[in-house]
Amino acid sequence: MTDPSLPLPPDKPATKASGPGRPKDLGKRAAILGAAKALFVEQGYNGVSMDSIAAQAGVSKLTVYSHFGDKETLFTEAVQATCAEMLPDALFVTDAKAPLRDQLEGIGLAFFSMITSAEAVAVQRVMMAPDTDDRLREMFWVAGPQRTTEALAELLRARVACGELEIDDCQTAALQLMTLIKGELHTHMMCGLRPAPADCDADAHVRASVAFFLRAYTPRSRP
Known about the structure:
By secondary structure, this protein is mainly α.
């Protein structure tokens, strides 16, 4: 028995809950994603290990697995995070008061800036390499290009509903606009034939692409 005349020992601090239900450290998650994005660009998918990502992020390999499960999931989320940073969802929110041309040009400039960045060109070259697994290509497509196409198609549907556009197949129209914005320049960059364009050149190219698109899909009754 404890002698009641003796002072009681100090209370021990409550032990933090552990296990799968424990909240993840958002700072560590961001560090892991940042490290993964940099390493996938520098070394390609096959050249990167979970050990190297953990070392770059300053965390343990167990922490990397705890947050992302496996390298494929981490790659997918790195692509999604990059797209969300350079093409945020807010760009695709329909605002009937905002001019359609201005919104499409804003999306076009952000898209063009993303696909002509050194990081995007490097990753796309990895996807085109003959030793890249088809499953990895599919994951990249769903996480990146498909996300952008679907967001743009949804915006076009909303603008069709407002009577600003006449489009039967918004998914195809979204692909057409993105292809116009890529243009021949993107192909030249992928082949290493020229660097990224200056801002003024990019602005003129995107404006011309959007103007061409609107000539095809603006209702004929409109000026």
